[in-house]
Amino acid sequence: MSKETMSNESMSNEASPDTAQTPPQDALQDSASLEVSDEYRASLRYWVLAIAGLGATLLLIIDMFNGVSWDELLFAVIGIFGGMWALWMATTRVYVSNQGLIVRRFTAAYRVDYQQILSASIEGRFLSIVSIVFHPRLDDGLIDTEQVGSIMIPSLVDQEQLIEQLEARMAA
Length: 172
Description:
The protein has 172 residues and is an alpha+beta fold. It has a domain at 45-88. The chain has four helices and seven strands. A four-stranded antiparallel β-sheet has the order 1-2-3-4. β5 (117-123) and β6 form a beta hairpin. α2 runs antiparallel to α3 (70-90).
């Protein structure tokens, strides 16, 4: 990876008012006419879970300076993985554009066009997720109607509005 590419990526990760509605560039390689109309962020519950998990793990690690036991070590490892999972979910962004949606987690971005989507629904109770079932694209850009893929998006702020938008655009 060149220095210029790394500097462009670090600049795109900075939060500024100008780039708040800009989707990740790696998901936009083949579409220059993509206009982002809405952005959805993960629920604040994931930030609370991440802080609680990593905070409890920090307390366990501090307690381990007095002597390490296997149960403290086990719960410290579980707390680290749980806190990192919640942090990964908390950084999820969904961009809705004129052609489809882009789901971004850390640096990975997944793009699904409206014509690929079979169904979109809200699943779960406490931490409800958005489940999108779609036909994936082949390497040549055609839609593979024999295969089915799915994306599970964590609980979002205003996720009912996202489902309404998807259903309206899928019907069109």
